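FIELD: query
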Amino acid sequence: MKLLHISDLHLGKVVNSFSMISEQSYILDRMFELIEREKIGTVLISGDVFDKTNPSVEAVKLYDSMMTRFYEKGIKVIMISGNHDSPERLSQYSTIVEAGGIYNNAIFDGAPEKIVLNDEYGEINFYPLSFFRISEVNNVYGTDFDDYTKAFSYLVEKMNIDKSKRNVLLCHQFIAGSTMSESETSIGGVDYISKEAFGDFDYTAMGHIHRPQSFNDGRLCYCGTMLKYASNESGQTKYFFVVEIGEKKAGEEFCELKTEKIPIVPLHEMRKIVGKFEDLISMPVNEKGIVTDDYVFITLLNDTYVEEAARSLSSLYPGLMNVSYDFKANSRENADAIMKTRKIENESPADIFKDLYKVMHQDKEMNEEQERILMGVINKLWGDKA
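FIELD: result
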């Protein structure tokens, strides 16, 4: 059976005031082209279908269009909810859509019931486990877990998995050892699940983390987002994960598995640009009169702030998401040189810090509010000794 594993669509996402709806619509069109080209019969959606629990009208319309296209093309869909989703919204009309081959286990109410699909090698058991918190596991089963790995392992035990069959899990959680992007937040690592806890599954289609990555010899995979949603994702390549579930031979622990990562080319790229303002404002323009219509994060290397820099640059870079400065390296060198030549043993901490502030901010003096905060911190630390 050939599957498409996707997750974290975040329909309706807004990045730095830019709506991603048109970008998402474009990528979904490319997805359906891939489904047709690769003759994919089943799609796994591993959570965070929407970006907000109360999605915009445009996001709901895009979702409805996607699900309608799945139904009309006879594509089976197995879907779970993520931490960004409203489980109640996703689970609407679940009985009706299941009749059309769309299975939606959006509301966590314990270990999921298996969904059985068939191919030329027999049954494949799918277990759609929506995003859960430990408190929800404890509420459902009357347990007192305080560890995500133990809670997850308990849920797996409740699934009564037949390891002689092929078993696929959909899950939306953090895995220990995974690499996150700016747009995900873990609670100090306490919400991580050990990789070893997924050993009963021939393939686990993970969602929650936006960077594509694999574990357990490629049987435990985050496909990542289909689009870039944060500045530190600008250097990433996004992929469609096409997964082929093969035969599980007698006596073998796992079935044959083939995963192909197909690079995604977005409508507009997201990238970082570094340079001086005067150089970036003088770049050659295209036939539209702009330098690029990509989404860009610009870092200026000027020694001082440039007045109205963002306004001036946005006319040439209409996808400008942010302007920042990187003059700290030069400032640190200046600060080190100045501080090394001073004898600070008899100077007050306030005077030392004020002078350092001036060096780091191109001779700009601290204002009254900053001085008040500074003195409060110094007095708290040293009191009369300051």
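FIELD: remark
The first helix runs from residue 21 to 38.
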